[in-house]
Amino acid sequence: MKEKLYTIPVNEGFEKDCECPVCSMVITLENNAIDFTMGPSYMEDDVREATSRLGFCEKHIHKLYKHQNRLGLALILMSHVDKIIKDTKKLSSSKIPSSSFFKKKTDSSELASYYDKLDGSCYICENINNTLERYVATIFHLYHNEESFRNKFKASKGFCTEHYKILYDASSKYLRGSEQAQFLETLNKLYLDNMERVREDLSWFIDKFDYRYADEPWKNSKDALPRTIEKINSINPID
Questions:
Q1: For residues 80 and 74, what is the distance between their CA atoms, to the nearest angstrom?
Q2: What torsion do the CA atoms of 49, 53, 57, 63 make, to the nearest 10 degrees?
Q3: Average confidence (pLDDT) per 10 residues, the chain, 239 residues
Q4: What number of H helices and E strands is found in the chain?
Q5: At what angle do helices 70-92 and 58-66 cross, to 10 degrees?
């Protein structure tokens, strides 16, 4: 099965000591996508066409800018700017539709729609999301077929809110009947138990700022803030 091609990164994600195995996979995908985009591939026609059409989100343009290949990024962005100029000229030169009450209203928001779509597109995000769909399919493939993976799944520290929802929603596509019910019971317990664990660490982190607890040990709370952010927002601010 095709899913087996992705068992290694999925297993590696669940073997890491982290707050969300899927976030760990996404970080690896993101780093690989950025390296690919800034490597020799940016000279390939199909890659240049895609980056020119999609552009980059705020998060990923910042990461691309921090990459060493500034010339590559400049060439990519020049092609992207050229396409924006070309498309804008074409769309903005269309005849302004009549405002007559008796005439059928034409699509006067074509230019606005173009920019709305452009604002929501990102070459890096699209690459990540395409592969992540296969990773999710692989998670369920392994869960259905391998007891060792089910045990690994149950031993994880749960998931961030975003990836908890993705797994919850996808369960109906890949599992049936009692197996789906058992999966959701395990998933919910993992999510809630570990959210409560992180919440307790965050509570102790807050208490440590009270002079009455100044001499008490930090326990597991020193990194409670970034771990909480990861659980809620799917990013670790210190990475």
A1: 10
A2: 20
A3: 72 95 96 93 90 96 92 95 94 65 54 92 96 96 96 97 98 97 98 98 96 94 95 84
A4: 11, 0
A5: 150
